[in-house]
Amino acid sequence: MLKDERLKYIEDYVNQHKRVPYQELMNQLQISKATVRRDLELLNSENRVILVRGGAIAKKTTANFELPYNMKLEVNSAEKLRIAEAAAQMVQAGNTIVLDSGTTTKHMIPFLAQLPYVNIITCDVIIAASCSYYPNIETTVIGGKLRSGYYNLYGYIAENVIQTLSADIAFCSIDAISKTNDCMITNIEEVSIKQKIRSCASRRVMLCDHTKIGCNAVVKVYDIDGFDKIICGRELSQEVLSDFNSLKERIVLV
Description:
Elements: H1 3-17, E1 19-21, H2 22-29, H3 33-45, E2 49-52, E3 55-58, E4 62-63, H4 69-74, H5 77-88, E5 96-99, H6 103-107, H7 109-112, E6 118-122, H8 125-131, E7 137-141, E8 145-146, E9 153-154, H9 156-162, E10 167-172, E11 176-177, E12 182-185, H10 191-199, E13 201-207, E14 216-217, E15 219-223, E16 229-232, H11 238-241, E17 251-253
Parallel strand pairs: 4-14, 5-6, 5-10, 6-7, 10-13, 13-16, 16-17
Antiparallel strand pairs: 1-3, 2-3, 8-9, 11-12, 12-15
């Protein structure tokens, strides 16, 4: 089998089976783990599959399912770290910021810890726990109902607390940004808390890796036009970026 044929086979196989470990591809193609890894790295760089620890998962065009939290941490982790660092550079000492739930916002914590003092409001107990290691970070957890397996808080209590607070910057996360500029998520129960998180700050910043741009999810939360800046990885193709011409001045690729 020629290399191009093998790459196409792997791409189709991963898309069909959603998540495929190295060993399964080794068995299917009778090739070494090193070859499988090189092929998956190439397909990942071409945005044809998503490389994760131990294998690959299908590239989403519609975010109609949500990956488990630990798997989310693995997906595009290098890109998310660059996005998190760029976002943290927007924060000044003494600022009050609100961090939406998410793995990219979680990655901001070590960078924010380099400031002499910062006040963080969050609905994510994993983020709150990460902040607890740094005495220069003052953390406010908004309370509410805990979403099992994803560690974020939502519901009546969370919504009523967040709307009494005020922040300098809200850093938001999303599951998908459609070609019609709709910010969308897979879990309907989180719509209201996400809307209130964005509304409590004078500046609004969206953090999203390149795989989320140009696809759809279950429910719309808000328009991307309501954000001052959108920070994304440089992996975003010019072809996809061209669909968002009206936002080009606000999209930052890192």
